[in-house]
Design brief:
Largest sheet: none
Radius of gyration: 19 Å
Distance between the termini: 62 Å
Order of helices and strands: HHHHHHHHHH
Strand content: under 5%
Structural class: mainly alpha
């Protein structure tokens, strides 16, 4: 980028541009294959700026993979349709965020970086497993069963995510995928 095309200075926008470029690079190349230079080039900034904002590649990775799920909206409604609501949210995320999904970045990096695996486990416990367990308790499911069912759903969704998002780019027919996930999750929620 030369000085004639320089962008106006806006630290917040620059930081977001760097994070978007980092998510794409980490999702595409994994942690080991991603360089600060590649992210800087994609974001059209100096590598020194990445160091200044994030302290280097490790800090950039942590910032780029920060993710939150808002399951409270999904939990509104009866237990009998929870699988459908969860499936719709999952598939919408998969098809709406593409390679910039921080969760996809964590999934891809979990096999190569202990820090990523720990971050993914902590994320799933905090953002998925525990909220689902609490919701099942609100539906009247007893404690040991609520935890077991939440773990089963969490494990299923993680496995499907790894299989379809990490190992394959083509998700197939969106409606069919949503139906299959909905039926599978509902079975895990309700099976005797």
């Amino acid at each position: 980028m030369d000085s004639t095309t320089a962008r106006p200075k806006d630290a917040s926008r620059t930081r977001e541009r760097i994070l978007a470029a980092a998510r794409r690079e980490f999702a595409r190349a994994g942690f080991a294959g991603t360089t600060v230079r590649a992210v800087a080039a994609a974001a059209e900034v100096s590598p020194n700026l990445i160091t200044r904002y994030f302290g280097g590649k490790e800090g950039l990775f942590v910032a780029a993979t920060e993710v939150r799920l808002d399951l409270e909206r999904v939990f509104e409604g009866p237990r009998g349709s929870l699988g459908r609501r969860l499936a719709e949210g999952i598939v919408a995320r998969w098809t709406g965020m593409e390679g910039e999904d921080p969760l996809l970045v964590l999934l891809r990096a979990a096999g190569e970086r202990a820090e990523a695996a720990e971050a993914l486990a902590a994320f799933l416990d905090r953002e998925s497993l525990e909220p689902l367990r609490r919701q099942l308790l609100r539906y009247g499911v007893a404690e040991p069963e609520a935890l077991a069912r939440a773990r089963a759903v969490d494990t299923f969704v993680l496995g499907v995510s790894a299989r379809l998002r990490v190992l394959r780019d083509d998700l197939g027919d969106r409606a069919e995928l949503t139906d299959w996930i909905a039926d599978s999750v509902q079975h895990l929620l309700d099976a005797p």
